[in-house]
């Protein structure tokens, strides 16, 4: 009896809450105020390291102002460039700097907002915790095929890499592999999130992903003695780093501008930090 | 010798049946066990109050509600496009077309039925790119485009089911109507379509199921991981099959993976319900016409 | 015309009727035109799809990239855009999936038509029918969570995302297609020969093996062709569990990429690069296979249908 009354109260409470929430009622936050008189849609696609930050920001903004709609899709940095360049989305994210050719071809404007390192990572069950750059190169070239050769238990190495549209792959390939070969046998996953899930499930796997994605489910590998943390990425002692960018075609529209300002502002910085990246504003 | 082969064949057939049934039960059982507990309001609405979410007043995060609504919208829109076209074409092929033209049309329908869904999606993507370069620079991948491509995907099913249902009717029925002075079209509307209705309807339902489950087409034509409720037919949207596809690769926590199981179970329940409806209608249609055939 | 005719001549019953018929005729042809329009639209979409794919694949020929696209290496950063590994991947996956599904399908059909107990036929065919409604993405999802770790556990050299995993999963998906086609053919044959062979003293199992099997031969081929084309056209299962490495596989445990998943993976790269052209080439190949399959099926069906229609005429 008592329980059912409580349940009823809860339902009534929820009804009141849901009906009583007028648009904008939550927009007390000074950072979110910039969206108050705006409406429309922002389509975002591209870099997959960005997705957690974008989703979180979208949630805050849409809760504050339901007239604004944000859609978030992945695809990889290449997709980000192509889609924003063709005008298919408003913001194309990349996990690498735009090439001069891309800027010239589409007239893109770029907004870096966070520092991210690219970590080589394995399953937490794997006893191997440190590798040299040369070992990583040999592993990805397919020359080292067994964990025993780098001090682990005897088990075949499972290679995971990203698709060609990935900025993470490009950073890793240029700065760590020095444009060396990646074995064609390597499994291909389509995003940082997918890489993390693959590594988290497979004790023999090795791959690479944004440091922001490294948590207790995957183990970042110490590279030539440098721990893959964002602090080390920021101060330069971890070498494989990149910035995360938002890109627009030409000058951004007011709504898109407000979004970029929000991400680059103090509220955005909190969100960026929450997801394991270091905001450039700091 | 013959007896031995017969026994061997029997043993093999048992093996095949047991393997298949075992695998299917394993698959569905796994899904059912892992998915059952996840089905509750939180699966749909996350931390948003359900009522506010249902009336569309509050955006839903961490729930599959926007994906469900997206799938329903997608299915409705593609049905709206495909059903009139499919029925009209099916009627034409069953009762008006003849000779070489009929053969060519049928071939086209069969080819359409055989086109892989990813190619249909690629077509939609190419269509948008060329539209943007020519007449409509603002055109974009969206709900309407996906629905259009899905409509093409299910169109051949509709045509074939309509045609088959009409052609399955006894010729006497058609002649009886005509001899009473009905025009062919009156005969179609007042006599043939009503009796073929169940057969056609089952085709429609199967087509709807096919549109609800397809992932490859929407992958290329406008589905996104996060958008909230679909706001218009020219906007991007979420959909259940894509949500499942996305979570299979990208679940960032066990909770998200559990949501994947929940979403998969919901989609399965949806398609199974559609299938059972179609199966029932089809079996009653066949039964009716078997009996009538005997009495004529 | 009609109204003038009515005004100038006396209204006999005959002219009224004629006018009425002509009016109906005109409506008939209007309706017929509308239906024809719908049919042309439906069937024309095939040409539209072919046209778009060809148009976007055209630069391959005009810029002379054909030899590069039809080569054995996919390394876009080194300027190598070969899709032949994916074509081999598609073919290998479809063939192996058929290798698993086809015998199973035949076994099931045999079971339903005399080899198994009659009382189990209904539930079995019900289950097979139900399988047609299971969404592909669900097969993929369960396979990722359930089958992939299983394969990885059994074969340490494999990541679990492999040709084998994809083939097993895909075989479940195409199984109902095969069973339902063979079943339909057997039912047709069954109706013709059941009484005769029972009168000759054959058991149901013997009837199936020695009388119906040879007669249903075209249906067996049709099921093989259609099952194969279904396997070749699948995207989602291959994309989710085959591993997607662009290589010619050496073993069942290798990671492979199909033409269909290649399209899905590459669709949004830079629109002028050859990577982009390669997906339209892939699309055209898949389209071509689909046409070839249909023409084959037509030949099979028209030959299979001959005795049946002959009987009616």
CATH class designation of the largest domain in chain A: Alpha Beta
Q: What structural class do the secondary elements of chain C suggest? A: mainly alpha
Rg of chain A: 22 Å
Largest β-sheet summary of chain C = 2 strands, antiparallel
Helix content of chain C: over 70%
Describe this structure in words.
- The complex is a heterotrimer of chains A (282), B (296) and C (313).
- With 282 residues, chain A is of the alpha/beta class.
- Chain A folds into 2 domains: 12-115 and 243-279, 3-Layer(aba) Sandwich (D-Maltodextrin-Binding Protein, domain 2); 117-241, Periplasmic binding protein-like II (D-Maltodextrin-Binding Protein, domain 2, 3-Layer(aba) Sandwich).
- Helices cover 37% and strands 23% of the residues of chain A.
- Chain A contains 10 helices and 12 strands.
- In chain A, strands 1, 2, 3, 4, 6, 7, 8, 9, 11 and 12 form a 10-stranded mixed β-sheet that branches.
- In chain A, helix 2 (51-64) links the parallel strand 1 and strand 2.
- In chain A, helix 9 (254-264) crosses helix 10 (266-274).
- Mean pLDDT of chain A is 86; it is low at 15-28.
- The model of chain B has no long low-confidence stretch (mean pLDDT 87).
- Chain B has helices spanning 2-36, 41-45, 50-54, 65-95, 99-114, 117-133, 143-167, 171-179, 184-213, 216-221, 240-250, 254-295.
- Chain B is 78% helix and 0% strand.
- The two termini of chain C are 44 Å apart.
- Chain C folds into 2 domains: 2-62; 67-309, MetI-like fold (Orthogonal Bundle).
- Chain C is mainly α and 313 residues long.
- Chains B and C meet through helix 1, helix 4, helix 5, helix 6 and helix 7 of B and helix 2, helix 4, helix 5, helix 6 and helix 8 of C.
Index terms:
heterotrimer; B: 296 residues; mainly alpha; MetI-like fold; 78% helix; 0% strand; C: 313 residues; 2 domains; two-stranded antiparallel sheet; 12 helices; 1% strand; disordered N terminus
Quick synopsis:
With 296 residues, chain B is mostly helical.
How are the SSEs placed, and which strands pair?
The complex is a heterotrimer of chains A (282), B (296) and C (313).
Chain A: H1 2-20, E1 40-46, H2 51-64, E2 68-75, H3 77-85, E3 91-94, H4 100-106, E4 108-122, E5 130-131, H5 133-141, E6 158-162, H6 167-175, E7 187-189, H7 192-201, E8 205-210, E9 219-220, E10 222-223, H8 230-235, E11 241-249, H9 254-264, H10 266-274, E12 278-279
Chain B: H1 2-36, H2 41-45, H3 50-54, H4 65-95, H5 99-114, H6 117-133, H7 143-167, H8 171-179, H9 184-213, H10 216-221, H11 240-250, H12 254-295
Chain C: H1 2-8, H2 13-62, H3 66-69, E1 74-75, E2 80-81, H4 84-115, H5 121-131, H6 136-154, H7 163-199, H8 204-215, H9 217-233, H10 236-241, H11 259-266, H12 274-312
Antiparallel strand pairs in C: 1-2
Helix pairs in contact in C: 2-12, 4-5, 4-7, 4-8, 4-9, 5-7, 6-7, 7-8, 7-9, 9-12, 11-12
